[in-house]
Write a structure and sequence with these properties.
The chain is an alpha/beta fold. The protein is built from 15 helices and 19 strands.
Length: 461
């Protein structure tokens, strides 16, 4: 049973106030600032950047030393640093954040500091810290984007998300809280055919305004619905929001076909925060009020496509300043067709771990091998794991049309892309388990992109 939207919104407001999270005041601010001109948005960013740098100088010795070495201390104290001046600082990466945590975290940050762990999809989990300002900014940014799609706070939503199998007392309380704010949580860690049948029925009964989840989990559920001949009739649904990983074109088309509404991409990371969201105009709008996003090539210079390096303006608890995300993105010089002053990204290409390396050194996007599997009849689900440039493990959940002919087509198709010497270890599975994060990754490569290739990989096809 759902509750009236006004009641759910009131419960949500009370919860955020009790947790000392200024989510709704930040939402009001974001609703206003999105309409700033580009020039005024730059001024807004500059002011908040200087506050962050002053905080880092006072409370994060590791950053203070870097600011000193870059000759920026006087400019920081004067509040005179421009976003373009950030290029004078070296970048930081996950290892820096992990190895220097006690020299980074400000434990006296107003509202308290809270530890959190990344999902580890890159192979390097990170324990980091954030404060109430970062929590509120992420939540408010998501609420603002929902409003772009006609979904107001407190209206019914479904979350296809990671959840424990066995619910503790605390988890049961959280489940009650979710229902009081009109959120229905479906466990992305449990995606068996029988469970997905239950999910489709639960979604039908809930009739949400929005569905939110991992891109791969949403695509898996949509594929299951289509295989079952189920066409969800969701009269209230306005948008399906995908997050956590790149959304491939075939996934978008499948989800939209099954659920009958547009898919909106959300780009963020646990450590870096919520960075960009897709609007109904089909553009990916940056959270310009909370993030400075640089796109850098292999040499560390600004580029049209390259690694996203972010400065999170709401990361006072543990500042992320020129932080290398490992994500490959494309920059856009376009203005928002909707008239907002938010910067536009052309797209998130993928993580550096979403690329495959051929024996001859070519670096290929995961789609190069995904399309091989998608074109072969009898493949219900799949996952490819690259252990070496000449060795690929292929997990396949077979459908009724699977045959030994299909097995040969898989091998030959992959060799055509990656080289004739490729060893293909194909294993038939009853099911393919998700990653520990709950995501269903199609391609995982354990082949390191060394040196400049680690940053240049995103520009190679």
């Amino acid at each position: 049973m759902s509750v009236p939207a006004w009641f759910a919104r009131s419960v949500f407001r009370l919860q955020e106030a009790a947790m000392h999270r200024p989510t709704f005041p930040v939402l009001e601010e974001l609703d206003r600032t999105q309409w700033l001109s580009r020039e005024d948005m730059l001024d807004y960013q500059t002011g908040h950047l200087n506050v962050l740098l002053q905080t880092a100088l006072a409370h994060s010795p590791w950053h203070a030393a870097r600011l000193q070495a870059a000759g920026l201390v006087d400019m920081v104290r004067a509040g005179a640093v421009l976003p373009s001046d950030l290029a004078r600082l070296p970048t930081m990466d996950k290892r820096d954040a992990r190895d220097n945590v006690e020299q980074l975290v400000w434990r006296g940050v107003p509202g308290g500091v809270f530890p959190y762990t990344t999902g580890g999809s890159s192979g390097e989990p990170l324990i980091f810290h954030f404060g109430r300002a970062r929590q509120a900014a992420d939540a408010a940014g998501r609420l603002r984007a929902r409003r772009w799609w006609g979904v107001q706070p407190g209206e019914r939503e479904v979350y296809l998300w990671g959840a424990p199998v066995e619910l503790s007392k605390t988890d049961r309380i959280k489940t009650l809280r979710d229902r009081l704010v009109n959120q229905l949580l479906l466990n992305a860690f449990e995606m068996s055919p029988a469970r997905m049948d239950d999910y489709l029925e639960a979604i039908r009964a809930w009739n949400p305004k929005a569905i939110y989840g991992y891109a791969s989990s949403l695509a898996l559920l949509a594929a299951h619905a289509e295989a079952r001949g189920v066409k969800p009739e969701l009269s209230a649904l306005r948008v399906v929001s995908s997050t956590g990983e790149p959304l491939f074109p075939h996934q978008r088309e499948l989800i939209e076909r099954v659920f009958g509404v547009p898919v909106a991409v959300e780009y963020g990371a646990r450590d870096a925060g919520l960075m960009a969201l897709e609007s109904p105009d089909g553009v990916l709008l940056q959270m310009s009020e909370t993030h400075v996003i640089e796109v850098l090539d292999a040499a560390g210079n600004p580029a049209e496509e390259g690694e996203a390096v972010i400065t999170c303006l709401v990361s006072a608890a543990q500042p992320f300043i020129r932080y290398r995300t490992g994500d490959v993105v494309r920059r856009s010089g376009r203005a928002d067709p909707g008239g907002r002053g938010l910067a536009v990204l052309d797209g998130v290409v993928g993580r550096q771990t979403d690329f495959i390396v051929a024996a001859d050194g070519r670096i290929m996007h995961a789609l190069a091998v995904i399309y091989v599997l998608r074109a072969i009849p009898g493949v219900a689900q799949f996952k490819l794991i690259q252990h070496a440039v000449d060795r690929l493990e292929v997990l396949v959940v077979p459908a009724a049309a699977w045959s030994e002919t299909a097995r040969g087509e898989v091998t030959e198709g992959l060799r055509a892309r990656l080289g004739k010497s490729l060893v293909v270890d194909l294993k038939l599975q009853d099911a393919i388990a998700p990653e520990a994060s709950g995501k269903h990754r199609y391609v995982v490569s354990h082949v390191a992109l060394n040196g400049a290739l680690a940053q240049a990989g995103g520009g190679t096809t």
